[in-house]
Amino acid sequence: MKILGISGHYHDSAAALLVDGVPVAAVQEERLSRHKNDAGFPLAAIEWCLDRAGLSPDDLDAVIFYEKPTLKFDRVLTGLLQGWPGSWRSYPKAMKNMLGEKLWVRGLIASQLGISTRRVRCIEHHQSHAAAAFLTAPTQEAAIITADGVGEWATLTVGTGTKRADGSSEIRMLRELRFPHSLGLFYSAVTAYLGFTVNEGEYKVMGLASYGQPTRIDEMRRLLRPTADGAFTLDLAFFDFLGKVESGYSSRFIDLFGPPRKSWQPIDLRNEEGRRLADIAASAQALLEEVMVGIATNLQRETGLSDLCLGGGVALNGVANARILREAGFARLFVPSAPGDAGCALGAALYADRILFGQPHKAVPDHPFWGPEPDEAALFRIAREDGIPAIASDELIEDVADALAADKIVGWVDGAMEFGPRALGHRSILAAPHDVAMRDRLNRDIKYREEFRPFAPVVAAEHADRFFDLPPGGARLARFMSGVVPVRPKWRSRLAGITHVDGTARVQVLDREMEPRLHALLEAYGQRSGIPVLLNTSFNLAGEPIVNTVAEAYSTFRRCGIDLLVAGNVCLTKPRAVRAQILENVA
Amino acid sequence: MGAPSLQGDPPREVAQPGRGTAYFGDFFGMVLRPVHRLIWADPQRRARKLLEFAEVEASGGRDLVRAAELTDDPVLRARYLVHARDEARHADMFRARGRALGKEATGGGKEGLADWMAPGERGMEGLDLTREKDADLLAFLHLSESAAARDFARYARVIDKDPATRILFQRILHDEDEHKAYTRGELSRIAPHRARRVLWWARLRRLWKAYLRFATALAGVMAGVVLMVQYFLLLPPFVWLAKRNAKREKSGWIFVDEKAPR
């Protein structure tokens, strides 16, 4: 069967294509439209997926949307009614939003693709998350937790998944928490309070948390209280999910924690205000971890299973993931490369294939590389036109390792683009991880971002334990950079560029089979430095999506302090004189 | 790419006699001057508008980068990248000044101008850059820069009591003039025989987009009024039911699977 999965209309739209039970293409719309977190209908992503497989819309057996719009409308309308008359500002906006387009998504998809609406189906949001987490994971039976802001009604679900010997698959949802009681919305409200953009700045809260102490956790517990059955409930007096959609916190929240930070105010961790914000971040983070560990522990005891699959936006919280792995009793924790809404496109397609249509389970290749591939020849042409020195060679690895050892910063484009928010070795900026100066240089000259945000390392799997204190099962969690683990104390000074203030790092543990060229580069770099670890950050500038094509990589290379651009076997060097000349020629 | 100091080299004065006359000849500028003066008189509103301008400039810069990535013309690629760098610098300058003003202001945040009231230069106004030809894009950019220059000159003239912001506008206006010149020059280079036609076509498209923005805003207001009437007149009975049901909801887990252990 040929099944197209679509997610969209909220944030981070995406499309994924399944042919005979196996993914052949998946890409986020933002990578093609070049609008970060593009929430629009993912037409470009759909077109690319179909082109990749050489299919037309008529060839599709089914198109699956990742959530049920009528259920979502039910939740939105009910919420507005319950919030009456305080919801008067939100009502027109929400109704125009839902009635204008979102409620009619089956018709929209059918008209955009020129197919019958009978071939378009919708499944529930958290079923999509659960399928993305479980059906892509190399496990036969696992407990499943999905947690995000909100889907239709559910905000957090627990269940189990089974792949049987006869090829059938089952995902069984046991119970769920419903809007407005949401861990994701709780964290998003704190994100907004701290002056970061909701659905984008949550990882900044996690980074900031390491600089603080959870001194405000008791106050946080007034916001989010445990229930007798092991779940939790939000005290809605502290939140305003209807009145202020962009923030979500109420005036009582401000009374409790003080004035919120404005987005343009800098965070200076040396002064009292900066420390107050860091303490609030630390307290929210600690509470989120506590809740997630509690729910996971109960689920492990209840199911007796050794594997846990985690999906939903909350699964991007690597600190919480690592605590779950250490404390909840599971031997392995699987987080897909795209646990957020984008990954739901793949999850929806897989759910339809295995569950709705009862197709036999097939193992999904255990890598995140489902996107477009770079055109090396195009890069060579552009470089020649612009007078940038370029070489094409089959043996670039040694040269690149030399450059990294000489403290050069490398833009690395290699093979199909990652599906998900992390750069896992195909669209990465690589650098030596040893000192703070490199981190500061990256922040200043390339990423233009806050100093409290850490950079992540990538390490060859064979050497991971030597440098990082991985818990049992930690290598698996770190396969897609989904866990934050301690850097071993003896290496912290020599890995200062990637060691966060609390001695941890969000490490990627790289198997040779998953990405042989980057693995070879790590080995070559290890031979020179004695440490086969590199700093690995996403290949993009602030406010832009990760690069897709070589032209985008090239423009990024031209606009920032990257010294070398490598795309497959083509390498561009940027001498200082040329860099100055490029900008001055036409200025 | 830090925010340049506003105390650095003196900017080229844009309200020069020749140009100034041209701008003063602008009928709308004359008519709207009291409105602009009123808008820009309040430091809070000034800060908010400058921060919004920063977003517009940053967005325009990203669009220009995209244009550079898509063009096959190496000269245009280089031009667009330099232009994008300028836009990013303008964004930094607007942001720095907006923040400086905002320190004294209690407002801020995202609320503010509707899209149709944004300044003349609105990024690429939703153009699909993947489908635009170089000539069309240059024509569009030329007109966009001209509109931005006109708007910024108007603003600079009405900000009497805030010399730092006035100097900021004048500095940026200097760049906008250069952008106008290069886009016109490049348009003549790549479409020598049809540059004027392309420019007129671009003017018509801008007019159409302005109409669409206005019509969308008007439709939005009308829909808002209808929905608001509905909200207060039709919903109350359903509100009562919804609130009654909300009271009955128990907290904690909702069991989805009937066979699940409780």
Beta-strand content estimate of chain A: 15-25%
CATH fold-level assignment of chain B: Ferritin
What is the CATH superfamily of chain B? Ferritin, core subunit, four-helix bundle
* CATH C-level category of the largest domain in chain A: Alpha Beta
Overview of the structural elements:
- The complex is a heterodimer of chains A (587) and B (262).
- Chain A is 39% helix and 18% strand.
- With 587 residues, chain A is α/β, with parallel strands linked by helices.
- Chain A folds into three domains: 2-66 and 68-122 and 341-356, ATPase, nucleotide binding domain (Nucleotidyltransferase, domain 5, 2-Layer Sandwich); 183-332, no CATH class; 376-585, Carbamoyltransferase, C-terminal domain (DHBP synthase, Alpha-Beta Complex), CATH 3.90.870.
- In chain A, the strands form five sheets. Chain A has an eight-stranded mixed beta sheet, sandwiched between helices.
- In chain A, β6 (141-147) and β7 (154-163) form a beta hairpin.
- Chain A is globular and about 65 Å long.
- The N and C termini of chain A lie far apart (55 Å).
- Chain B is extended.
- Chain B has a single domain (17-248), classed as Up-down Bundle (Ferritin), CATH 1.20.1260.10.
- In chain B, 71% of the residues lie in helices and 1% in strands.
- Chain B has helices spanning 17-24, 27-41, 43-70, 74-102, 134-158, 163-190, 195-233, 236-248; one strand at 254-255.
- Mean pLDDT of chain B is 80; it is low at 1-24 and 106-123.
- The chains are: A alpha/beta (587), B mainly alpha (262).
- Chains A and B meet through α3, α4, β8, α14 and α21 of A and α3, α4, α7, α8 and β1 of B.
- β8 of chain A pairs antiparallel with β1 of chain B.
